Amino acid sequence: MDNNYKYGVRATLIAMLVMIGIPIIICVVYGVWPTLSSVISAAGPLLAIFVPTAIAEQLSMVPVAGTTAYLNSILGNVMNIKFPCYLSAINKAKANPGTELADVLGMIAVTVSGMVTVVIIAIGVMLLVPMKPILTSDTVTTATQYIMPALYGSMGISAFIGTTAGDYNAPKKPLIAVICLVLVFGFSIFVTSIADYTGYAMLIMLVVTLIVAYILYKKGIVKLYKKEKQEL
């Protein structure tokens, strides 16, 4: 398990060097360095959206994902594919996040997910031109608009039906998710839309969720019951 952290750090640094190094090499070889103003104008709005989202993802997922967080960050598409695969794997095995069993099963699930993604992308690239009439049809165009809601909906199901909290069972844990969902919808409907501030909203709701959970626990509404640990 110690090696997972050691190799995870090394692999992450190598991945960062590759991702940053390729554009730098291209700029050096072809002498096409962008101006600072063009970088700021292009990256500024993106950073404003994705930096808070990235921070929120790390704060919320790393404590749950364990050592698979390294592989998640390298392979990408964490919220849509990798993290749901991890959650599905440990839920099927009834493993607690943070245990060796969860880390091992999660690593296998995330790795296989990465392999499947590469294969699907490769097939998609090869079939892109032959399948253009189908991909540009009204039916497919309409269906793609519901991909993200479907993904986040499937992830949200675990929050609304899950009653585990690490080494404990919490029968009324879904109540926390319901209250937070009501707060988010209420703010969006009666105050202002958060569509353009998703990253900031995630950071704020992390804190709000902790506060709600703490209040419900102190009031005795959400109670914790020790459960038996699983060993690898």
Structure description:
The protein has 232 residues and is mainly α. It is globular, with a radius of gyration of 21 Å. Helix 3 (68-75) runs antiparallel to helix 4 (78-92), helix 4 packs across helix 5 and helix 9 packs across helix 10. It has a domain at 162-225. It has ten helices and three strands, in the order ααααααααββααβ. A three-stranded antiparallel sheet has the order 1-2-3, with no helix packed on it.
Short overview:
It is globular, with a radius of gyration of 21 Å. Helices cover 75% and strands 3% of the residues.
Low-confidence stretches: none
Helix content: over 70%
SSE order, one letter for each helix or strand = HHHHHHHHEEHHE
User: Could you tell me the strand content as a percent range?
Assistant: under 5%
**Shape call:** globular
Distance between the termini: 12 Å
Main beta-sheet annotation: 3 strands, antiparallel
Say how many strands there are.
3
Mean pLDDT: 83
Structural class: mainly alpha
Multimer state = single chain
Q: Taking strands numbered 1, 2, ... along the chain, how are they ordered across the largest sheet?
A: 1-2-3
Total number of helices: 10
Radius of gyration: 21 Å
Q: Secondary-structure blueprint of this entry?
A:
Layout: H1 2-30, H2 36-65, H3 68-75, H4 78-92, H5 100-127, H6 132-135, H7 138-144, H8 147-161, E1 164-165, E2 168-169, H9 174-190, H10 198-218, E3 225-226
Antiparallel strand pairs: 1-2, 2-3
Helix pairs in contact: 1-3, 2-10, 3-4, 3-5, 4-5, 4-8, 9-10
